[in-house]
Amino acid sequence: MDLVLNAEEQAFQTQVREFLATKMPPEIQERVRLAPSYVPKEYTGRWQQLLYEQGWGAPGWPVEYGGTGWNAMQKYIYDAEYQAADCPRQSPFGISMVGPVICAFGTDAQKEQHLGPIIRGEKFWCQGYSEPDSGSDLASLSTRAVANGDDYVINGHKIWTSHAHHADWMFCLTRTDPDCKPQEGISFILIDMSTPGITVKPIISIDGHHYLNEVFFDDVRVPVANRIGEENKGWTYAKFLLGHERTGIAGVGKSKRKVERLKDIAGVELDGGQSVLSDPSFRARISQAEVALQAVEFTQLRILAQEKAGQPPGPEASTLKIGGTQVEQTLNELMIEAIGNYAAPFPADAQDMERNEPPIGPAHGVGLMQERLLRRAATIYGGSNEIQRNIIAKAVLEL
Fold first, then answer.
1. All CATH 2.40.110.10 domain ranges in the chain, comma separated
2. 81 is an active site residue
3. Which of 5, 214, 284, 378 is the most exposed place for a label (fewest CB within 10 A)?
4. Does the domain formed by 125-233 have CATH 3.90.70.10?
5. What is the pTM of this model?
6. Interacting residues of 157 by C-beta distance below 8 A, sequence separation 6+
7. Could you say which of 81, 131, 245, 297 is catalytic?
8. Is 1 in contact with 72 (CB distance < 8 Å)?
9. Where in the sequence of the chain do the CATH 1.20.140.10 domains occur?
10. What does the pLDDT look like over 195-251, one tens digit per residue?
């Protein structure tokens, strides 16, 4: 893939930049700058509607369902400009995860019911995968769905469910056959979160915010018609989805933006009377992170080229997940080092736009410790990096 933009690609880049500069509501952009992981649902939905009206609501979807039909380089340009403009992350569970699954494997009725509300930002989704005793070893899950007439009756317990307290729907892996190989007895079911018997309990993460949840199912009745594809074949659809998730987790554009911010912060913060950026060893560590990020970016471009050729993300997407999350954590650590002692106090409401007290320390330090603490989990969620290395060894290197 040629990384030098031709005239047509430059024109597309200009179009993207102009749209983001003129259509992004300033209050949403400011919220993203202060707290990228805690953008209110109403802001996310409002921005998704603007993208939908532009025709850019779901760039990765097939054109017939609202996708853009962009080629790999256009996707690359768009992602880079989107992240650089401090745009809110589109709801990944709907746009990037369950949406492509419904497009590929859903019934006509499921497509009619769900794809429009997702792409218009009207319905939000969460992911019912992890359980207290089943995380990266997802095939060991035990949440049970038992057929009863035209319904499944679901009982079980999901955990670490991001945004379940905001979600309208959940895509959930459940065990429908306990008497076979673990991967062969799982079904992929869509669940309305307002269904009786569902209880959502908050998990307050180490950064002091509510992002995660536990979800309990007590005799929850869900129509069999909400199942994606065949019964007991959910593992197939889950692997398809995880390929898209791990590609998105790489966060190349977001990390590029962090590199810029890190250099700005290190350029004004002082250590021994000199800027932190003037320290050769600190500059070298930034450079090492940039080189690692460039390697992830090139891998992402290769995978985008494969997608253009009609090949969905495969096991090689695990390399993006590993490299992208490691770079993100490194950049977060460097920013904390750059602001020094001002990283220590981080009141839970420091990122609240309505807060009427000045920040403790420089304004550019607000939210850095919260982001660093929250993203310590980046190498775990989406399948721990240790598991990803096993996938690479087996499926890519054939060891």
1. 125-233
2. no
3. 284
4. no
5. 0.85
6. 131, 132, 143, 214, 215, 216, 217
7. 245
8. yes
9. 250-396
10. 999 999 999 988 888 889 999 999 999 999 999 999 999 999 988 887 665 566 678
